[in-house]
Write a structure and sequence with these properties.
Length: 282
Amino acid sequence: MSRPLLRFAPSPNGPLHLGHALSALVTWDAAEKLGGTALLRIEDIDRLRCKPEFTDAIFEDLHWLGLDWPEPVMRQSERFGAYRAAARELEEMGLLYPCFCTRADIAARAEGTDPDGAPLYPGTCRHLGAAERQARLARGEKAQYRLDTGAALARTGALSFTVIGPSILDRPQIRYARPERWGDVVLQRKDVPTSYHLSVVVDDAAQGIAHVTRGRDLEAATDIHVLLQMLLGLPEIRYHFHPLLRGADGEKLSKSKGSPSLRQLRDRGWTRADILRQIRRN
């Protein structure tokens, strides 16, 4: 049997912090226990926020943690063609439609929130006729493209996925997916021909990823990923969700909240052993 492949896929939109260190170390530890290999992937579809210097810092930080990976490293910014092809498949199934709504439009009409707490898209543009859609696109109106989740589920039926935990060597368990709680998610943004949901599913399949280790904050997103895998005829994946590191305020560590970066901790004299002790303490 071939060695199972896992991956760690950070976004170079800021420096790595302790939470990223935990996720990386969990992935490499799982790969070792499974007799597999951990890959590094750079998720840099955000052209405005992702910077080459952050990518370089990711390599430096991971090497400092004692981690290595096979080359070459996959970079999502080089794979827009693959994402467009996957989106075309969904469009040909009648499952992708243009959405012209702004965030303000959605917030004003939303009823409820998605699992991340964002206003739940009410399906406004799903009801537009083909002629109106084409006219608005012809006028140059910016559009993002959404998955018609209800129609997608009518095609696939009930969905489930395999979860392993709390240890990566535990017996697998079956969990049912609930993509409907996300509403019609964006699969192609206005600025790039993909989104996190679409690119991660396409890339996991392209790299032959068998096991995905991810933080519990991404557990709910797995519902959408399983749905896309089924629609696109992609292999099933086993998932392992690890706990999150939290700050003194009880919130998860975050780049946007200024959590200390690994580089800052290193400059303060921290060693890899200090990082491991801090992670275990949390």
